[in-house]
Design goal:
5-stranded parallel β-sheet, elongated, alpha/beta, 226 residues, Rossmann fold
Length: 226
């Protein structure tokens, strides 16, 4: 049984999310503020955290950063403000997904399952992927260009790994949404564009290029042979 930590100061939201998650077989822990959330996270090591952005004591941003500092627990952010979406999507906070309020609890459960599937698949591990000087290790969730370790957010890592598995192959935005974000993610292709820009910045000038194929998608450019 996987444990989900729900962090929100609105009791009705916590009760609603708990109801739907427990119906699907999850164990649910609840916190009403940021400090309590960090205590429960450290004590119980949940499989996933559903985290409201606006919280008393410590807000969701600080909680998210601290959880990311501790490890790779998947995080789904809740936000009531549309203007916060770009910050979350851009992984400035290190979140794996986001949901805007008001939300359909069934959709939230679907997103929880999608994020957990990705996390489980990564945990099962795979051989390191090498494309020129780029080395991506799915088991350790580490990526290097030469000796330089890339400081990648969780979703940035997943995107780079997806591109690196098939260097030279064009991945459509829709395919990347499905493979990286999960089939249950009803997102927009703008999400992919924001993350590709972030990964390009991490790779820098000495890493392989991610080429835009106009009107189609992206591909990781392999080094020339010979």
């Amino acid at each position: 049984m996987k444990t989900i930590l729900v962090v929100d100061d609105e009791r009705n939201i916590v009760d609603l999310v708990r109801l739907y998650l427990e119906k699907e077989g999850f164990k649910v822990l609840a916190a009403r503020d940021g400090r309590e959330a960090l205590v429960l996270h450290e004590r119980h090591d949940p499989s996933l955290v559903i985290l409201d952005l606006m919280l008393p004591e410590l807000d969701g941003r600080e909680v998210c950063r601290e959880i990311r500092r501790r490890g790779e627990t998947p995080i789904i952010m809740l936000t009531a403000r549309a203007e916060d979406v770009d910050t979350i999507v851009g992984l400035e906070l290190g979140a794996d997904d986001y949901v805007t309020k008001p939300f359909n609890p069934r959709e939230l459960v679907a997103r929880v399952r999608a994020v957990l599937r990705r996390a489980d698949a990564t945990a099962r591990g795979a051989r390191p992927i090498e494309v020129g000087d780029l080395r991506v290790d799915p088991r350790r969730r580490e990526a290097y260009v030469g000796e330089r370790r890339l400081d990648l957010r969780p979703r940035e890592f997943d995107l780079l790994a997806a591109l690196a598995r098939d260097p030279g192959v064009v991945h459509t935005r829709d395919a990347l949404l499905e493979n990286v974000w999960g089939t249950d993610f009803p997102g927009e292709t703008r999400t992919v564009d924001v993350h590709v820009a972030a990964v390009r910045a991490r790779l820098g000038d000495d890493g392989p290029a991610i080429e835009t194929v106009r009107g189609v998608g992206y591909r990781l450019v392999p080094p020339p042979r010979g």
